[in-house]
Amino acid sequence: MRILSLGASGPKDIYSLPDDILLLIISYISVKDIITLRKSSKKFYELTKMRWVWSDAVKRHVIDKGLPVPAASTGIKAFSSQHLESRAVHAAKFNDNWYSAQPKPRGAIEFQVNIFQPDGSPYAVRQVVFLKGRCGEFLLTLAWNTIECWEIPLDGSGAYRIAEWTDEQGIEQILVNDDPKHAAEVAYLAVSDVDPEYTWVYTLSLDTFHGAFKARSAMRGLRDQMYPLHLMHGDFVVMGDPFLVWNSKGPGGSWSIARLMNDAHVVILTAKVVEHYLIVVRTRCIEAYVFPVWSAKEHRFSCVGYIISALAMDAQPVREAAIIVRPKAELEPSTSAYPSTPPPVTILMLQSTHFLTQLDLLPSRSPKKQGPNSPYELPTTATRIYQVAPSSCQLKLSSGGKGIWMQTHNVTNRRAAYPARCIMGFDVSSPHQSYNATGSEDASSLHICQSELYARRCDMSEILRKKYSIVAADLEDSVGRIAVGDRLGRIEVLDYV
Description:
By secondary structure, the chain is mainly β. The chain has 7 helices and 34 strands. The strands form 9 sheets. Strands 22, 23, 24, 25 and 26 form a 5-stranded antiparallel beta sheet that branches. Strands 27, 28, 29, 30 and 31 form a 5-stranded antiparallel beta sheet that branches. Helix 4 packs parallel to helix 5. The longest helix has 18 residues.
């Protein structure tokens, strides 16, 4: 490689440039090109080993693109050059695979649950959930009345069961805490055949050193008031409809939030805490609540929760929904008791008419009144609408913006085409990444993968009965992992890096 000099001395090698100029050039090339450049000479080998190069690469090619930094729950300041390089390369490879024409897993780990029926056959895996803040290495599985926690190292060495929790009453649903730093990591809803009108909700913590779950708190109540569980946020578990907010840390810490529409068919599909607000998606409307505030001194809710805005949807009812909170820009701190500028929110909805609809909630720009007011501008139209297969279901969004859903369609290989149950992928990214069709500069970009991420062949009996072998799936997009559970008690963990 040579460059032309403007001086009288003639051409000079690029190696004659000062190191700071070379580092500036390196900062403008991709992660893949940095690795390639390293192999060209000893000079570039030494430069591309510097910590500054990979700190800048993580910022430019991972953080600035809205990608999660793999295994970086404590930040990147303490990471060495080698650790920064491995994370930048990992994130770049996963993103390249996800956006490729045919995204495929680079490795897979298969294992079996240890819960068996009286006839010796395993129970079906009803839920698979990655623990938050555990870098995709800890997976929860629910089969019959048992929760198991599996450690699955990123090196692909295998799957190891480290903890188990059994409830003889039966377990209907599990949730993981969306606060990765909280001690209570799991909540579950227990059922009882003896007294079906009542149910219990328990919270558990995971002790990885001793390999055991530990019970933290429990609450008993009427099933009609506590089913289903919607979310777990720190000490709070939100359940039922009307909402019941339970503070699992304080005695008597529960509060009911009345719903806007007294219609049994307008059910809750998903909910998410966004700063001091609770965003709720129902079958025919979207609601925003002020989230209750717990007073530790008085052992009660000092600020009750109530609805402050709602958006009715006149289109076809929504079957499933998912919410992603986009990072907000750095702003001056507010002195108000209520946040003046909550982060933007993107909602994806699967409608009964077999459409995937994107709706963006942007922070309200209206003049602020005394006390809380609507945190978001209520949109009049959808941002985007995509047609999807009628069999689409189990819409899930991970914290980094990538998500999955399941559908059935024909898969073609070199010899034949056959029906398969497939996992489709998509990515919700910040608006600066690409221009959107609506012309709104604030709307998120939505990319749908060109091909399925995973496919398992199914026969016509599965399609006619709508009982597929794949029961559950979950995504951990910080490291590029998908977990799949089936009716035969098997789990597959797919690595896309």
